[in-house]
Amino acid sequence: MINATAGQDPDPRIARTRDRVLPATVELLAERGVGGTTMEAIAHRSGVAKSTIYRHWPGLPPLIIEAFTSLNQAAPDRPSTGELRQDLTLYLGELARVITESPWAPLMTALVDGAERDESLRELLGALIKRRRARLEEIITAGLDRGELPGDTDPEFLAGVMGGALFYRRLISHESIDEAYVQRLVDTFVRMT
User: Of 127, 128, 125, 113, whose CA–CA distance to 34 is shortest?
Assistant: First the structure.
């Protein structure tokens, strides 16, 4: 994997290789998924020799993981308006945008598919889900602490249900996730708790 020594400028050739290979890998993953992305295809798309790619990445899985992480799709910030309904609407609205419109969106299917076959991709997917669900749990816990939810509310379970509803629509049913859907989801959640 490409790494510069701490405190030193990386070799410009390494930076050029990285700047060509990672975007090519991301494009191929979005177009073909993990199963259809090969070192040969990456070399062809990036214009970087396969032998050069192998000098920097020991194989396809580490390159794919670095390509996914190069997009640096952090979980949306946790809103803190002091009102559960508004915090949920803001957070889930931003999460919906990330999974439908961001550079990360077309790669989600590839990552889910790849996670079925590769342990390192499964770990990456798990870490991404955990970060997003943790923010949602924080919002629900804050609402619980303010007395907006019943005392026996399980923030972890509810965060999984709410986040799962968005990901189901995005990855399985392929229905739109617009502001109206997010508002309906939040309203349903608040009514039922």
Answer: 113
